[in-house]
C-alpha cells in the first residue's frame, strides 16, 4: 500500500514538516510507521493506520484513546521513569485526533517514545516483574474509570461463547477447504469446553466484577528503556474497555511465561516457565493485592487458561476464514499459532498446582 504521508502529517497540529516514514513494530492489528520531521528534537512520531475492520467505530475509539491518554499523562507524573503517550490533535479541529485521508484511511499520531523497545520473549525474571508491575500500575490508574463512561471498542472481545460460536461457523462454512488440516485442533477445542462453562458461570452470575481493564496485556504492549531495561509505558490502548482482571492476568501468563513466541513451530519448546510466572505474579500483585476481590484472586489461573484457549480458538478461526484478521507472514501461520497456544494451555494445566502454590505467596 502506498500512502501519501506528507499530506497525512500535514493534517496534524505539529510544527514540523514530513521528512520520512518507515514501517515500525510488530503488532498484529494496526499499521505503525516511524515518522521523521524537520523539527528540532523531538522530531520523531509514531503514526498508526487504524484497522477499521477490527475497530468499526473509530469515533468511539478516538474518544477512548483521548480519555485514557489524558489520564495516563496525569498518572505518570507521579511515577518516576514512566513516559506517557501523547495524542496529537488535528490542525483543522483541535479537539479531534483521528485524521481521515483521501482514500478513507484513518490515522492517529503519537509521540515516539525514544530509546525504547518492545520484547517478544521474556529473557529474565526482572523483565517479567517490571512488565507485570507496569500493567498492575496501569490497572490502578483505571480504578477511576467507570465502565459506563468508556466505549466497548470491540463487542464480545473476550467472550468465550462468542469465540466458540465463531469457530463453529467457520468450521461449518469451511470456505477455504482447510478444515481437513485442522481436525485435531477443532477436537481439542470441543474437549475443553468445560473451561467456557466455568468462566461463563462466574461471569454471568456476576461473581467476577466487570472493571475497565486493558484487555491486551501482551508482552510487546509495554515499552522498555533500551539501556536500563525499566518499563517506560503501557501502550496499545485500543481495547481499554469493560473487561475483567482475569483477562489481563491471563494474557500476561500467556505471553510472558513461554520461552518462545506464539509463532514458534517447535512445540517441544512451548511451556510455562515457573520462575517467570513467579516474577509476573509478584510484579502484578505488588500493585493490586489489596484491590482484587477474593474471587478474582482465586480465579487468576483460570484466566490464564481462558486467554490461552481463546486466542488459540481465534487463530484457528482466522486460519479457517482465510487469514483475514491477524497479520501473517507465511501460509499456515495462524494454524501454527493455534497449535502453539494449545500446547501452552496443556502446559498450564500440567503445572497448575505449582502455579497456585506460587500465587499463594503474593495474594
Ligand atoms: P498494534 O495494535 O498493531 O499491536 P501497537 O500500538 O501495539 O499496535 O504498536 C505496534 C508496535 O509499535 C508496538 O509493539 C511497539 O513496538 C511500537 N510502538 C507503539 N507505540 C509506540 C510509541 N509511542 N513509541 C515507540 N514505539 C511504539
Ligand atoms: C492482537 O494488537 P496486538 O498485536 O497487540 C490482538 C490480541 C491478541 C494478540 C495475539 C485488537 O494484539 O487480542 O491476543 O494479537 N488484538 C486485537 O498476539 O485483536
Ligand atoms: Mg500491540
Nutshell version of this structure?
This protein has 363 residues and is an alpha+beta fold. The chain is built from twelve helices and ten strands. Bound molecules: adenosine-5'-diphosphate, 2-acetamido-2-deoxy-1-O-phosphono-alpha-D-glucopyranose and magnesium ion (MG).
How would you describe the overall organization of this protein?
With 363 residues, the protein is an alpha+beta fold. The chain has 2 domains: 5-114, Phosphorylase Kinase, domain 1, CATH 3.30.200; 125-360, Aminoglycoside phosphotransferase (APH), C-terminal lobe (Aminoglycoside 3'-phosphotransferase, Chain: A, domain 2, Alpha-Beta Complex). 44% of the residues lie in helices and 12% in strands. The strands form 3 sheets. Strands 1-2-3-5-4 form a 5-stranded antiparallel β-sheet. Strands 6-8-9 form a 3-stranded antiparallel β-sheet, covered by helices on one side. Strands 7-10 form a two-stranded antiparallel ribbon. Helix 4 packs parallel to helix 10. It is globular and about 55 Å long. The mean pLDDT is 96. Bound molecules: adenosine-5'-diphosphate (ADP), 2-acetamido-2-deoxy-1-O-phosphono-alpha-D-glucopyranose and magnesium ion. 2-acetamido-2-deoxy-1-O-phosphono-alpha-D-glucopyranose (GN1) binds at residues 27-29, 54, 216, 218, 221, 236, 239, 262, 311.
Amino acid at each position: 500500500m502506498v500512502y501519501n504521508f506528507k499530506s497525512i502529517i500535514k493534517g496534524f497540529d505539529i510544527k514540523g514538516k514530513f521528512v520520512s516514514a518507515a514501517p515500525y513494530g510488530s503488532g498484529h492489528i494496526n499499521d505503525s510507521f516511524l515518522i521523521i520531521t524537520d523539527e528540532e528534537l523531538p522530531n520523531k512520531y509514531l503514526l498508526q493506520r487504524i484497522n477499521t475492520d477490527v475497530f468499526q467505530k473509530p469515533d468511539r475509539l478516538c474518544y477512548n484513546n483521548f480519555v485514557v491518554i489524558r489520564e495516563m499523562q496525569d498518572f505518570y507524573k507521579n511515577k518516576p521513569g514512566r513516559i506517557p503517550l501523547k495524542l496529537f490533535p488535528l490542525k483543522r479541529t483541535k479537539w479531534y485526533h483521528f485524521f481521515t485521508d483521501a482514500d478513507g484511511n484513518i490515522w492517529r499520531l503519537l509521540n515516539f517514545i525514544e530509546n525504547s523497545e518492545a520484547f517478544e520473549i521474556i529473557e529474565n525474571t526482572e523483565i517479567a516483574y517490571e512488565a507485570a508491575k507496569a500493567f498492575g500500575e496501569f490497572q490502578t490508574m483505571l480504578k477511576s474509570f467507570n465502565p459506563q463512561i468508556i466505549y466497548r471498542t470491540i463487542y464480545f472481545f473476550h467472550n468465550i461463547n462468542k469465540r466458540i460460536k465463531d469457530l463453529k461457523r467457520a468450521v461449518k462454512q469451511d470456505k477455504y477447504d482447510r478444515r481437513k488440516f485442522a481436525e485435531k485442533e477443532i477436537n481439542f477445542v470441543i474437549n475443553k469446553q468445560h473451561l467456557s462453562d466455568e468462566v461463563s458461570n462466574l461471569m454471568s452470575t456476576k461473581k467476577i466484577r466487570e472493571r475497565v481493564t486493558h484487555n491486551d496485556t501482551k508482552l510487546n504492549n509495554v515499552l522498555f528503556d533500551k539501556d536500563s531495561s525499566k518499563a517506560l509505558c503501557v501502550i496499545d490502548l485500543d481495547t481499554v474497555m469493560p473487561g475483567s482482571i482475569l483477562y489481563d492476568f491471563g494474557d500476561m501468563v500467556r505471553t510472558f511465561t513461554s520461552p518462545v513466541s506464539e509463532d514458534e513451530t517447535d512445540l517441544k519448546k512451548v511451556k510455562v516457565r515457573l520462575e517467570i510466572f513467579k516474577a509476573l505474579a509478584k510484579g502484578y500483585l505488588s500493585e493490586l493485592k489489596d484491590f482484587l476481590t477474593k474471587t478474582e484472586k482465586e480465579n487468576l489461573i483460570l484466566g490464564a487458561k481462558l486467554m490461552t484457549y481463546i486466542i488459540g480458538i481465534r487463530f484457528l478461526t482466522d486460519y479457517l476464514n482465510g487469514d483475514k484478521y491477524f497479520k501473517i507472514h507465511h501460509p499456515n501461520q495462524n494454524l501454527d499459532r493455534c497449535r502453539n497456544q494449545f500446547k501452552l494451555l496443556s502446559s498450564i494445566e500440567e503445572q497448575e498446582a505449582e502455579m497456585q502454590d506460587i500465587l499463594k505467596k503474593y495474594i
